[in-house]
Amino acid sequence: MRKGVVAFFLVITIVLSGVAGYCGSYLGNFYSNAELDARAQAALTTSEAIADREPENLDVQKDNSTTSKKSESDHIGFLPFSKTADSADDRELSVPEIAAIASSSVVEIYTERVVNSGRMGQLVTEGAGSGVIISPDGYIITNNHVIEGSMRITVRLNIGTDFEAELIGRDSQADIAVLKIKADDLQPIVYGDSDMLMVGEFAVAIGNPLGKLGGSVTEGVISALSRNIEIDGHKMTLLQTSAAINPGNSGGGLFNKYGELIGVVNAKSSGSDIEGIGFAIPVNLAKSIADALIEYGYVPGRIDFGATLIDILDHMTAMMYRVNATGVYISQVDPASALQSGDRIVSIDGKDVESIADINDILTSRNVGDALEIVVARNGYFVTVTHTLKQAMS
């Protein structure tokens, strides 16, 4: 009897064990499948979100076949991402996202100039720089020194299309020029606010370094906000950045962490022991100058000295120009002026002049229409003349 009871309970134990194993396996598969379904749904949702971010102005083609046509910018590797001035997305962006937003608004600029080369006569020289698109109908900001003296200016978009550009206006004091190309539906930059910048803030430079590497992106920080730099005799207050800047970057864009333009690149410090020092014109100044150039073709209130000046600061240069003293000489002058070609400017309104920078310092406190008392050295004599300042038209 006891053996039968033991056998009965043994059978019951085996049956219950089998049922428990089956139920465990069933429940495991059920929750595993449920988790996979949840992951699949999440992946589908993410895919739809990414698809929703594809901008309308990019040539993004969808094709279910194994091959599809790529957009013309695919060789650069930009993300399909865009931002407009009325965009509500104010989050901080990654470098690839900033590049995707801004690169289509940065152009390459190529110039041709005629120069005199002594015995070889006139030669055509080529130059290169960068620029940023500021309107859908083709207005572009660049540096004055990029296009100054050019007889032909060509603008190349980041998709590789070339346009001949018209010079709308230029301002040598701020080193800003505005070009116009005949194109529509371009992607303009979004303006930032350079007055709100802080030292150490993230910055990205995009341009055409060396005149052959269009669309290059470098990153760094804002190293200083108000560097007083003298460029071509003009004292400028510039942003300093550690983003790599090279020849050809001039006129390109400096962008903040939101992909907004905060500066127009215009200079770098060079030398064998100098690295990571570049400069940009604050965008608030660049925009105000560009707006004036578009409206008037010049900046109202800018002074035209009325003469082409040459800085002769050392004796080697003096020997080359065959003069006996260093200083500021007049190369060309308005025929109506009492000044003459070959005059050396000694003083203006009683202030000694040794360089063009000295003259520019004096002119900062003068206005269009003011009459200056200028002492010049002419043919071995000191001569005092009266010279009236005019409105600068370029």
How would you characterize the overall build of this protein?
This protein is of the alpha+beta class. Among the domains are: 194-287, Beta Barrel (Thrombin, subunit H), CATH 2.40.10; 303-391, Roll (Pdz3 Domain). 23% of the residues lie in helices and 34% in strands. The protein has six helices and 21 strands. The strands form four sheets. The protein has a seven-stranded antiparallel beta sheet. β2 (122-133) and β3 form a beta hairpin. The longest helix has 51 residues, at 2-52. It is elongated. The protein starts with a helix and ends with a strand. The model is unreliable at 5-11 and 22-76 (pLDDT under 50).
Note the total helix count: 6
Give the termini separation: 120 Å
CATH fold title of the domain at 194-287: Thrombin, subunit H
Report the oligomer. single chain
- Largest sheet, spatial ordering of strands: 5-4-1-2-3-7-6
Give the class-level CATH name of the domain at 194-287. Mainly Beta
Give the helix level as a range of percent: 10-25%
- The whole-number mean of residue pLDDT values reads 80
> How would a textbook summarize the main sheet?
7 strands, antiparallel
Strand content: 25-35%
Whole-angstrom Rg: 33 Å
Give me the secondary-structure category. Answer: alpha+beta
**Could you tell me the number of beta strands?**
21
Low-confidence stretches: 5-11, 22-76
The CATH architecture of the domain at 194-287 can be given as Beta Barrel
* CATH homologous superfamily placement of the domain at 194-287: Trypsin-like serine proteases
Strand-and-helix sequence, N→C? HHEEEHEEEEEEEEEEHEEHEEEHEEE
Q: Which word captures the global form? A: elongated
